[in-house]
Design brief:
Layout lengths: L3 H4 L14 E12 L2 E9 L9 E7 L6 E7 L5 E10 L15 E9 L9 E8 L7 E2 L13 E11 L2 E10 L4 E7 L6 E6 L8 E12 L2 E14 L8 E9 L4 E3 L18 E2 L7 E5 L9 E5 L14 E2 L6 E8 L2 E8 L2 H5 L2 E5 L2 E2 L3 E4 L9 E8 L5 E8 L15 E6 L4 E5 L15 E5 L7 E8 L2 E6 L4 E6 L8 E7 L4 E8 L1
Parallel strand pairs: 1-20
Antiparallel strand pairs: 1-2, 2-3, 3-4, 5-6, 6-7, 7-8, 9-10, 10-11, 11-12, 13-14, 14-15, 15-16, 15-17, 18-19, 19-21, 21-22, 23-35, 24-35, 25-34, 26-31, 26-35, 27-28, 27-34, 28-29, 29-30, 31-32, 32-33
Bound molecules: beta-D-fructofuranose.
Beta-D-fructofuranose binds next to strand 1, strand 5, strand 9 and strand 13.
């Protein structure tokens, strides 16, 4: 067996959660309880590939450092434990609590195996913990909600206090029908149908891992909207897996979307860019939010991968990682609410500024930053005034070709560029290093970004195998995996043509 130090290999992220060993996918059961954030996740405890699906478990007090815990809910010969959520059952509505301590209740999908009398079905089940998440017991009355469907999964449950009453609400999917189905319950044990949303907007793949939550617009508690998150795979904006969202209202029974562009199943994908997307990159999937987060914060985590090639990404005893935690808010832009995202930033507290540049003209071509500004784990804040330049941006993770000996700056690189002619920000990983493990991995992601007072603000988080870009204070994000050579650490400023200005730059490491 390898030691942990040996496992701390080339692509092991510093600030992104990965299991010490073996496979992970979706974040599950995100819940805050008694000062601890719990991150459960789809996990194969026995291999680097998808299978034996169980809930792995990690805990954190700061959303930055995660401590791996024993597997929380294990598969057995009758069922795999698919995605779901967890709640603090404060009033012990389920009756699982003991001695006045509220139980944690996990609501997960039982994916029944051929050995089960329910073989082939997916239904919703419960497990509970009376020791604050350390150990879990499956409820003897499982499943608690069965529609005799083969694709009914990924329940997200929250407590709703509204004009229609106070009760638990479940949002789950009928995946192949592109439907989000809503149910309510007084006790988590018995469920009553409320309504169905969809198909709408992106329908190019199965709908998975929904979420529904209320947010104030511009922080105004008297003006709120509901956000319905619907992950889908394939059919995401960048290809393969992606997360879309709808903004609207929820009356306790039905979600009414204000951002539906196209109703029904789409044969034509020409309106894709008009839908709401959580991320415009290839590697932010199954994103869902924490339940019970303090101070009304809405905190989300996505699986930093894509079903197109997740089984093929380079691995070394472990495979796949989560995104940074993101706080999402609604702000008013152009007279309507839009979602903005901000990373819970490990660099803010655990890194220092290693390099900075003041306002200066951008030279045509690539200007390499000095060695102290290079690295594989960096935060880069850059502000550009593109002016008359054709393109401006950053060259990231530049260095030698994979396997090459010398740091040849003409070699591999990942390019983040703003094209002034098309007003598009793009992240190009076609030459980012090891791109050959799957044919659909080399890609260029694009998102329309309007300059604000002639300016483009970028915050970029680099970790050992990922790039997360937050543009214009989180109005648009792009998340992509990259697998460069160890030597691929150089950072450059990019300009095409004269007339562009760098308004400022800071590098934290
Ligand atoms: C999403 C998903 C879920 C399912 C889980 C299985 O990535 O397909 O719909 O519950 O993964 O691992």
């Amino acid at each position: 067996m390898k030691t942990l130090t040996e496992l701390d290999c080339q692509y092991r992220p510093k600030w992104h959660y990965s299991a010490q060993r073996n496979w992970l996918n979706d974040p599950n059961g995100l819940v805050y309880s008694n000062g601890t954030y719990h991150l459960f996740y789809q996990h194969n405890p026995h291999g680097e590939e998808w299978g034996n699906m169980s809930w792995g478990h990690a805990t954190s007090t700061d959303l930055q450092h995660w401590d791996e815990q024993p597997v929380a809910i294990a598969c057995d010969e009758q069922e795999a434990i698919f995605s779901g959520s967890a709640v603090v059952d404060v009033h012990n509505t389920s009756g699982f609590g003991a001695g006045g301590v509220p139980p944690l209740v996990a609501i997960y999908t039982s994916a029944y195996s051929p050995a089960s009398p329910l073989a082939g079905r997916q239904a919703q089940s419960l497990a509970y913990s009376t020791d604050d998440g350390a150990t879990w017991t499956k409820y003897a009355g499982n499943p608690v909600l069965d529609r005799a469907s083969a694709d009914f999964r990924d329940p997200k449950v929250f407590w709703h206090d509204g004009a229609a009453g106070s009760y638990w609400v479940m949002v789950a999917v009928e995946a192949v029908h592109h439907e989000v189905v809503l149910y309510k319950s007084a006790d988590l044990l018995t469920w009553e149908y409320l309504s169905t949303f969809g198909p709408a907007n992106a329908t190019g793949g199965v709908w998975e891992c929904p979420d529904l939550f209320e947010l104030p617009v511009d922080g105004d508690a008297s003006n709120t909207r509901w956000v319905l998150v619907v992950n889908l795979s394939p059919g995401g904006i960048a290809g393969g897996s992606g997360g879309q969202y709808f903004i609207g209202t929820f009356d306790g029974v039905t979600f009414h979307s204000e951002t539906t562009v196209t109703d029904g199943v789409q044969a034509d994908d020409s309106r894709m860019a008009d839908y709401g997307w959580l991320d415009w990159g290839r590697d932010y999937y199954a994103a869902v939010s924490f339940s019970n987060a303090p101070d009304g914060r809405r905190l989300m985590i996505g699986w930093m991968n894509n079903w197109q090639y997740a089984a093929s990404t380079p691995s070394d005893g472990w495979r796949s990682a989560m995104s940074l935690v993101r706080e999402v808010r609604l702000v008013c832009r152009g007279g309507r609410p839009v979602l903005v995202q901000e990373a819970v930033d490990p660099f803010h507290t655990h890194a220092t500024e290693v390099f900075a540049l003041d306002r200066q003209p951008l030279a045509d071509g690539v200007t390499w930053l000095p060695a102290e500004a290079s690295g594989d784990v960096l935060r880069i804040d850059a502000e550009f005034e593109p002016g008359a330049a054709g393109r401006v941006g950053l060259v990231l993770r530049a260095g030698s070709e994979p396997g090459g000996e010398s740091a040849d700056l003409a070699g591999a690189r990942t390019v983040l560029a703003y094209d002034c002619r098309t007003a598009e920000l793009s992240l190009d990983r076609t030459e980012s290093g090891n791109v050959g493990f799957h044919e659909s991995f080399p890609s260029v992601e694009r998102v329309a970004v309007a300059l604000e007072d002639g300016r483009l603000r970028l915050r970029v988080f680099l970790d050992r195998c990922s790039v997360e870009v937050f543009a214009q204070d989180g109005l648009a994000t792009i998340t992509d995996l990259v697998f460069p050579a160890n030597s691929g650490t150089a950072v450059g400023l990019l300009a095409e043509g004269e007339g562009g200005t760098l308004a400022g730059l800071a590098v934290l490491a």
